[in-house]
Each structure stands twice: as C-alpha cells, then as structure tokens.
Design goal:
Layout (H helix, E strand, L loop, with lengths): L1 H49 L4 H12 L1 H28 L3 H15 L1 H9 L4 H11 L5 H19 L3 H33 L4 H62 L1
C-alpha cells in the first residue's frame, strides 16, 4: 500500500512538473507569436509601399505636397494656356484649305462665268485664302493695281486674325516657371525661418520647406514645357497658312492679268 501511495505521489509530481513546463513554454511562446505577427504585418505594409503607384496618383500626391497656393496658380496658368492653345489649333485647322485646288476652281469659274462666278466659288469656301481671293476679285473691275492693294491690305487683316490670342500662350509659358521659382524662394525662406526659430540646424526642419520649393519649380517647368509644344505647333501652322496666302495672292494677280488680256482680245 505504501508503495502504491508513493508511486501515485511521484506520478503526480511528474505530471505537475510537465504541466508547469508546458505552461511555461506556452507563456514564452505567446509573446513570440505576437512579435512575429506584428513583424509580418509591417513587412506587408512595406511591400504595399514598395508597389508601383499610378501616374495620376503620384501626380495628385505631389501636387498636394506642393501646397494649394502656388501649385493652384500654376495649374490655373496651365488650364488657361491650354484653353487658348486648343481654340487656336481648332481655328487654324478650320482655316486651312487646299490652295491649289481653290486656285484651279477659281480659274475655271473665271474663264467660264467671269468675275461673279469666281466670287461665288470664294463665298462657298472658308479660310483666309478664299477671303483674299474674294477681295481681289471684288476690285478686279477697277484695275489690277487696285486688286493687288486690296489683296495686300486684307492679307494683313487675315494675319491678325490668325495670330489672335497667341500672345497669351507665350505669356503663360513665361509666367508658369516664374511662379514656380517664386514658390521655391518662399519655401526656402520658410525653411530658414524654422532654423532661426529652432536655433539649430536639423535636416528635419528644412526638408519639408525645400521639398515644397522643389515641387513648385518642377510643376512650373512642366507647365511651361507643355505649353511651349502647343505654341510651336501654332506658330508653325500660322506660318504655313501665311505662305499659302502669299502664294495665292501671286496666283490671283496672274489669273486676273490673263483674264484682262483675254477680254481685250
């Protein structure tokens, strides 16, 4: 009996000891599991941060970081500049005509129906070249010199119409980087104010101001580059139309001279 009791006591002690060991191991394991879980979550967040961000999201984030003050003004210059540029591009494309085809049509109408038939062709054709033809034909009954003067004078009027509002685009091209540089200067001033207030040179104090300053500069330069591309296209289009107008004026005068000579014969 004593041996049985002793055996039970020893078994209880062993079971109790094993339970304590398991409990201790469990207690020690729980913090480790929590730490591992937190580390896994942080690693997942780091992976999400490292994932590529879309262009629009990145642009929006940088715009907000730059501050609504100067960034909003620079954005306004971009909107206004694009509005004027698009309006000019549409107008110039509508003003573009096939000058050779128009000249042939006017010459055929002039030979078959006279001045009035040629003027009717010009009325039904849009663009500055057709308008110049009409003005020259309208003065053809007076003299060749009068027709030539009318063509030259009305050509200047048409050039003014083509170049209308183009100066605004050039203004916005110059204004956008200036505003960006002004934002840069103000950001640097704010950074040095923080250094003066803190009495210590710490990178964390000036990093924000310098970042804002650089963002306004970059955004202003981007706006100027975009508007410069549109401006160069508009200028090239105007030059092309003006060259067509000059060639058309010479062709018209030659047609009128031939028409006058045929009438005399």
């Amino acid at each position: 009996m004593k041996r049985l009791f002793s055996t039970l006591v020893i078994a209880s002690i062993m079971l109790f000891g094993a339970a304590n060991v398991n409990a201790t191991n469990y207690v020690n394991t729980v913090p480790d599991n929590i730490v591992n879980f937190v580390q896994d979550q942080e690693a997942a967040l780091d992976v999400q941060k490292d994932e590529p961000v879309g262009f629009h999201q990145e642009l929006k984030r940088r715009f907000i970081e730059g501050g609504p003050g100067f960034m909003g003004i620079v954005l306004l210059t971009l909107i206004l500049g694009l509005a004027v540029a698009i309006e000019r591009i549409i107008f110039l494309n509508l003003s573009t005509t096939n000058s050779k085809k128009l000249a042939q049509s006017v010459e055929d109408a002039l030979n078959s129906g006279g001045i009035e038939a040629a003027k009717e062709v010009c009325r039904n054709t849009r663009g500055p070249v057709a308008s110049i033809y009409y003005q020259g034909l309208d003065r053809a009954d007076e003299s060749i010199e009068a027709a030539e003067k009318a063509v030259v004078a009305y050509g200047g009027v048409q050039m003014g119409q083509l170049e209308k509002n183009v100066s605004w685009v050039s203004l916005f091209i110059a204004l956008a980087p200036m505003l960006g540089f002004m934002g840069t200067v103000i950001g640097m001033i704010q950074a040095f104010d923080k250094i003066e207030a803190a009495g210590d040179m710490q990178p964390s104090l000036v990093a924000g101001g310098i970042k804002v300053a650089l963002l306004t500069t970059v955004f202003g330069l981007v706006v100027a580059i975009i508007l410069q591309i549109f401006y160069n296209y508009i200028i090239a289009k105007i030059d092309s139309i003006v060259n067509d107008m000059e060639d058309a004026s010479i062709v018209l005068i030659d047609m009128l001279v031939d028409y006058k000579n045929k009438k005399r014969i």
